[in-house]
Amino acid sequence: MAMIDHAGVEVESFERSREFYAAALAPLGIEALMEFEGACGFGHPEGKFAGKPFFWITERGKPAVSGAHIAFSAPSRELVDAFHAAALEAGGRDNGEAGPRPYHEHYYGAFVFDPDGNNVEAVCHSPAT
Hints:
By secondary structure, the protein is an alpha+beta fold. The chain has one domain (4-124): 2,3-Dihydroxybiphenyl 1,2-Dioxygenase, domain 1, CATH 3.10.180.10. The protein contains two helices and nine strands; from the N terminus they run βαββββαββββ. A hairpin with a 5-residue loop joins β8 and β9 (119-124). The chain is globular. The protein starts with a strand and ends in a 5-residue tail after the last strand.
């Protein structure tokens, strides 16, 4: 199992950066797969991980975004809960308690800011058991 689920960066000009990454990643077979206001996720449209964005750009200054973003894969929702508790105990700041997210039907994630303000997440894509 891949341990890094997805990563992202903040950008100054969302439209300019969206166009840049769309053009630069096209030769690699990577394209924009999901978009929200001020955020765009890129990934492969076909293959094993078809339709799952793994690289995100987010407009600088959007709520709940700071610096870099990295999400680690968790094989269960219980481990997402454990990540959140351990990160807070280790000095992280809450940026979204463990729970379902609207990104897709089974998305279950938890978010914390690390000591430098980077957004760190654990995510499980499996249905609740």
